User: Fold this.
Amino acid sequence: MKIQWKPLLIQLAIPLAVGGLAGFLIRDSMETYIGLEKPPFSPPPAVFPIAWILLYLLMGTAAYLIVTSSSPGRKQALILYGVQLAVNFFWPLIFFNLGYFLTAFFWLLLLLALVLLTIQNFGRIRSLSAWLLLPYAVWLIYAAYLNFGVFWLNR
Assistant:
């Protein structure tokens, strides 16, 4: 399979731009997060941007594999991908900027459900694209643990 560079770069740029914009919008809230009680196994704040950049690159690569396929289910899978990406965008705003930790937890569960559906839809088209999204789902489970822990410890 020959790499189609323009679609690849576009698909990599989309989640990176969404994540970058969310990161920009929450930049002033990180001090508040640092001062919160956190559950065991919470990483230092510097881990989050690194993890998210890697996850966004995997997401973009997975989307590229779907965009360049000729599957009839491609459009539905990409719509679902876009919806989960939009839900992903709003989680840090709810958690960090608004400080609505319980709401953010349920929003994160919605995001996880959408990601699992996206994995299922992507997997029907290209199994590799589903595998590329698996670390994202695992990270969201970990993030849900952290999110609920922050809610519980800071209520």
